[in-house]
Amino acid sequence: MSELLANLNQEQFAAVTLPNQSALILAGAGSGKTRVLTTRIAWLIQTGQATPANILAVTFTNKAAKEMTARLSAMLPINLRGMWIGTFHGLCNRFLRAHHQDAGLPAMFQILDSADQLSAIKRLLKALNVDDEKHPPKEVMYFINGNKDAGLRPQHVEADDEFGRKRVEYYRAYDEQCQREGVVDFAELLLRTYELLLKNELLREHYQSRFKHILVDEFQDTNVLQYKWLKLLAGAGLQGAAPATANAIFAVGDDDQSIYAFRGARVGNMLDFERDFHVQNLIKLEQNYRSHGHILDAANALIKNNAQRLGKNLWTDAGHGEPVRVFESQTDLDEARWLISEIKALIADGSKRSEIALLYRSNAQSRVIEQMLFAEGIPYKVYGGLRFFERAEVKHAIAYLRLLANPDDDTSYARVVNFPARGIGARSLEQLNDAAKTRDMANPAGISFYRAVPLLPQGKAAQSFAAFNKLIDGMREATQHLPLKEIIDHVLDHSGLRAHYKAEREGQERLENLNELINAAANFTQEDEDSLIAFLTHASLEAGDNQAEAGQDAVQLMSVHSSKGLEFNQVFITGLEEGLFPHENSTKELDGIDEERRLMYVAITRARHRLYLSFAQTRMLHGQTRYNSKSQFLNEIPEQGLKWLTPRFGSVWAGDDDFVATEKPTYAKSKAPGDSGWRIGQNVLHAKFGNGVIVDAEGSGQDGRLQVNFGRNGVKWLALAYAKLEKV
DNA sequence: TCTTGTCCGGTTTTT
DNA sequence: CCGGACAAGA
């Protein structure tokens, strides 16, 4: 016990040993968050306050869940089975597999990843003859997911115009299609689980009495539905305050690191949680064990510019360390050249390449840097590309496997019915689609492609489809009792995938990936479950690491978003320019700049010993040279902690108007009425609509109109002469 | 039905 | 500028 709690600082200790009540732990970057979470679980068990079966620990990424499990098994000499540790989606999947009947799902239900979902929606819209100019599939997808993430079914969505009604109709049709095909998308995993718990009292009470301790990692990233789900599991009721009988939720999060609002995360959940669960135990972990003082000072000073924080200040006893280095270059190419020389120097000084990270706001920025690293022969690894299970050839193989498990999965059917080519084109598939829409009493929603084949009028197409069905059935029978690895091997041969890629000139790499799939299957061991289903779930839920060239000591390139949770000895934050970081699109969203600033905060706090910030005066973007001014975030970091590597005076950035250029500059769009001081991106307050941000403007002075995004209150055009707007 | 050209659009990402 | 998505020829 004392061993368990040894070496915790005062706040960590307090958090770990809190009494059995809900608590919110504000854990700053590098403050030992994971350690507190895992030690808390171990402590609850060791002191006899909980059994493993009483624990539910939920994270956002598989990586975090694995890390937690690994650390726990190092701490506890007991079997961790019975404890539910996993991602929101993973846990919901587990729940739905166990209660698929109550949830109205087939035992073999398949999980659609985002790409599958998009193609399912495309197929649906095509079948409904929807004009995809007016309703682009991507937007329909965002609409559906946005509503599911908020816990809303089609009947809950209000639509006040024709356009809105149409989208709700598509949402409803999409849900019907998924139901018929026996597939669920990511958001559905959560929503289905939530709804089942809501309506089934027996199940709800069972899980409520089981999970006495619910622990949540990265709480600031939860969306509306995830929070509702947690409340339900905790027995906290849906409205208002939780009763005293509610289970304890131990939430760990950092509002300053909330960078996923764009995908539905709601920081406000932290405040709601405090209120709903009468949180008396708010503990701040502010001692940072990662970075030197100057780096933390920069981070603290920057994030102070955000309003609406829960408030937190990182400190360290590791000393000031080195100043933050700043480099200004003429062009993006110069920036890359400087990066290379600096990296070479660091390596020459004995730094490991894998301890050097190059961060950027958007992935497109990596190209220039990559090219130069490649030319110089410096090993590097880019994160954020295609992942293993997202590769086309792997998805094809998976589609065949899914059809073995569930032939009604139309997305998979459509994907491979003509791959490799079997003379079944778009025309034939359309015919089949028509046949599948046939409704009768037995099948009010229509039937799947697979089942529609016998309904086709005799002809060439009907024969081709029948042959394909036979192929699938044949493979299913032949592989029925084989181990997973041999199932896949059989499918690769009999589907013709292997032969297809063998014949292709550049198919070598794809073949290797298919073999890699067999390897993955061979290493995949799942105890008491149907191994094929388990493997398919694994493929959907854990897309697999990016092209990991394991073992190679390489410089790390990634977007700021993907750097969250990681740390490096030396960090370069590149492209610190207005329009790029902060990104220009962010100015059009409510609180957009604040989220960009949190992003910058995340970036800064990745660095242990040395932090570099760089920006370029001109940058090639979309084939055009853009002239940007340096990022406002640079101005928000106090000068005394900075060390400029380039001279500051004579900089062309003395003022935008003094700009001297040989080419005609293309400024970032900034039209605003006259000199009134209104500008795009400005935050404003309106008596009726509340807080908003200016997105567009026309006219000038008192004749001008401003377009303002008021978030949930909509986007409005306001005439300056009438509307009373305050700058915030 | 499969290959070649043109057009468009272009943050961030996990599950 | 560069890749993906779709429309016209072999």
Please provide a brief summary of the model.
The chain has 728 residues and is an alpha/beta fold. It is 41% helix and 15% strand.
What does this molecule look like?
This protein is an alpha/beta fold. Helices cover 41% and strands 15% of the residues. It contains 27 helices and 21 strands. The strands form four sheets. Strands 9, 10, 11, 12, 13, 14, 15 and 16 form an eight-stranded mixed sheet that branches. Strands 3-2-6-7-1-8 form a six-stranded parallel sheet, with helices on both faces. Helix 11 (224-234) links the parallel strand 6 and strand 7. Mean pLDDT is 85; it is low at 650-675.
List the helices and strands and how they pair.
Layout: H1 2-5, H2 10-16, E1 23-27, H3 33-46, E2 55-59, H4 62-75, E3 84-87, H5 88-98, E4 110-111, H6 114-127, H7 137-149, H8 162-181, E5 183-184, H9 186-199, H10 201-210, E6 213-216, H11 224-234, E7 248-253, H12 268-276, E8 281-285, H13 293-303, E9 324-331, H14 332-348, E10 356-360, H15 366-376, E11 380-382, H16 392-405, H17 410-416, H18 426-436, H19 449-452, H20 460-479, H21 484-494, H22 497-503, H23 508-523, H24 531-541, E12 555-559, H25 560-563, E13 568-573, H26 592-604, E14 607-621, E15 624-627, H27 632-635, E16 642-644, E17 683-686, E18 690-698, E19 705-709, E20 715-719, E21 725-727
Parallel strand pairs: 1-7, 1-8, 2-3, 2-6, 4-5, 6-7, 9-14, 9-16, 10-12, 10-13, 11-12, 13-14
Antiparallel strand pairs: 14-15, 17-18, 17-21, 18-19, 19-20
Helix pairs in contact: 2-3, 3-4, 5-9, 6-7, 6-8, 9-11, 13-26, 14-15, 16-17, 16-20, 16-24, 20-21, 21-23
This protein binds a DNA duplex (15 and 10 nucleotides) through helix 5, helix 9 and helix 25.
